Amino acid sequence: QVQLVESEGGLVQAGGSLRLSCAASGSISSINAMAWYRQAPGKQRELVAAIISGGSANYADSVKGRFTISRDNAKNTVYLQMNSLTPEDTAVYYCNANLRRPGTVVYYNYWGQGTQVTVSS
């Protein structure tokens, strides 16, 4: 079994900051990329930021310069530091991990349960 457990999101005022974390646990051999996605009401889920095990990261244009993704490989944990939040950042944020379980060679995607982030104007 593999679980991705996200920290609680929350309600924050525009211009504020919030930090999300997501810890992967269970039977894990190797984690390749970890990422954050978000889904706003009535919209498709979109990639916010992703980071590979070596530390290289990429971001959606809408969050560049405001959000920072990082990871602690020893703890199988990924973080998303969100600054200068705007109401357009309001969404359910999902953690994703591309990982391989012991005894297998294929990497699969696993998802967290999602956490609500609401930014008030």
Characterization of the model:
- 29% of the residues are buried.
- The chain starts with a strand and ends with a strand.
- The mean pLDDT is 97.
- Strand 5 and strand 6 form a beta hairpin.
- Strands 2, 4, 5, 6, 9, 10 and 11 form a seven-stranded mixed sheet that branches. The protein has a four-stranded antiparallel sheet with strand order 1-3-8-7, with no helix packed on it.
- The protein is mainly beta and 121 residues long.
- It has strands spanning 2-6, 10-13, 18-26, 30-39, 46-51, 57-59, 67-72, 77-82, 91-100, 108-111, 115-120.
- The protein is elongated and about 50 Å long.
- The protein has no helices and eleven strands.
In short:
This protein is mainly β and 121 residues long. Helix content is 0%, strand content 57%. The radius of gyration is 14 Å and the shape is elongated.
Largest sheet: 7 strands, mixed
- Mean pLDDT, all residues: 97
- The coarse silhouette is elongated
Low-confidence stretches: none
- What is the H/E order? EEEEEEEEEEE
What share of the residues does DSSP label as strand, in percent? over 45%
What does the radius of gyration come to?
Answer: 14 Å
Tell how many strands the DSSP assignment holds: 11
Structural class: mainly beta
Number of helices: 0
Termini gap? 40 Å
